[in-house]
Amino acid sequence: MTHLQAGLSPETLEKARLELNENPDTLHQDIQEVRDMVITRPDIGFLRTDDAFILRFLRARKFHHFEAFRLLAQYFEYRQQNLDMFKSFKATDPGIKQALKDGFPGGLANLDHYGRKILVLFAANWDQSRYTLVDILRAILLSLEAMIEDPELQVNGFVLIIDWSNFTFKQASKLTPSMLRLAIEGLQDSFPARFGGIHFVNQPWYIHALYTVIRPFLKEKTRKRIFLHGNNLNSLHQLIHPEILPSEFGGMLPPYDMGTWARTLLDHEYDEDSEHSADPYGTPAKEVEKGLSPKSMKRSQSVLDPTVLMHMDKSEEENMQPLLSLD
Q1: pTM for the complete prediction?
Q2: Residue 196 structural domain
Q3: 8 A C-beta contact, residue 326 and residue 225
Q4: Which of 148, 147, 99, 151 is nearest to 126 (CA)?
Q5: 96 and 262 Cβ atoms separated by less than 8 Å
Q6: Alpha-carbon dihedral sign for residues 9, 12, 13, 14
Q7: Which 3-state string (H, E, C) describes 150-205?
Q8: Which domain of life is it from (predicted)?
Q9: Do the Cβ atoms of 252 and 243 come closer than 8 Å?
Q10: What angle do CA 230, 321, 248 make, to 5 degrees?
Q11: Has residue 212 been placed in a domain?
């Protein structure tokens, strides 16, 4: 075992070896091979190339050198293309702070039976008058940056539960194609985290419609790990034990405290008052989202436009049934 594996338990070390192809004897060589590829992308500013940083990308791509490098390049390219998102990338930024305090994201105290961190989002908590969807994405990315420092989570990964209870059609209409594409590229394509499952619960019909629209932009591996439970919490409990879930998800624990993770990040600054506005950047949220779209994607119509819904066929509806396999 090298010093780079010092934070791993014996069980996780074995998991890294078996599932991720991590070999302590070749670890430094693996890292160097990825680092040597940096010169092939002079258009990207690689702000970090230290051993510990590159290692998390190798783990995220099961030690496939080129795939790890491509993820590393996309990580920095995403930040270059969306500079406004990362100008004030800290927990005390007004928009990020309010999103964090509203539970975007939350994190449960207990890991699941695979050692994965369980993140939770209560979609209806979004206060459109105080922060934007971009702020929510920034808060999630900032939180993942903090959590991924834990080598155990680099190996074991994360699980995400999104509760859509009371999420209104008006709120959903703000989920434009460009905003969704921005989130997909930031979380699926540009961040070194392993997501073992993304669980939707209590989703209304228009979230089903939204999923149908974004499904083509998701990798096959991601699609297989999305579970649409609806009101059937029993199917959720088959995958995540109710003993570690709060009561909102039919679990045995007390209701989730939305400020739990925010207090961890903000510490003594959690209770400090700060001014909030609908747009913390001085630009209409609509324009912020437009300017941040990393690739050309038309946003002239909402994903919930009636014309989209009219063209949903039977096969698309069937695709929205709960999936019951992580493989």
Answers
A1: 0.83
A2: 90-273
A3: yes
A4: 99
A5: no
A6: positive
A7: CHHHHHHCEEEEEECCCCCHHHHCCCCHHHHHHHHHHHHHCCCCCEEEEEEECCCH
A8: Eukaryota
A9: yes
A10: 20
A11: yes
Residue 59 sits in a domain of what CATH number?
1.10.8.20
Pick the closest to residue 170 from 198, 204, 138, 136 (CA basis): 204
Provide block-wise average pLDDT over 10 residues at a time, the chain (327 residues): 88 97 96 98 96 98 98 98 95 96 96 97 95 97 97 97 95 90 93 96 93 89 93 96 96 95 89 48 40 37 40 40 36
Residue 211 sits at the vertex; the CA angle it makes with 97 and 191, to the nearest 5 degrees, is 50
- Domain membership of residue 283 (yes or no) is no
Whether 224 is covered by a domain: the verdict is: yes
Residue that is written with structure tokens 């434009």 in the block: 176
User: 149 with 193, same domain?
Assistant: yes
Q: In terms of domains, do 73 and 100 share one? A: no
What token pair was written down for 48? Answer: 């970090």
Give DSSP secondary structure letters for 9-71. Answer: -HHHHHHHHHHH---TTTHHHHHHHHHHGGGG-TTS------HHHHHHHHHHTTT-HHHHHHH
Distance CA 94, CA 84 (A): 14
Q: Is residue 261 part of a domain?
A: yes
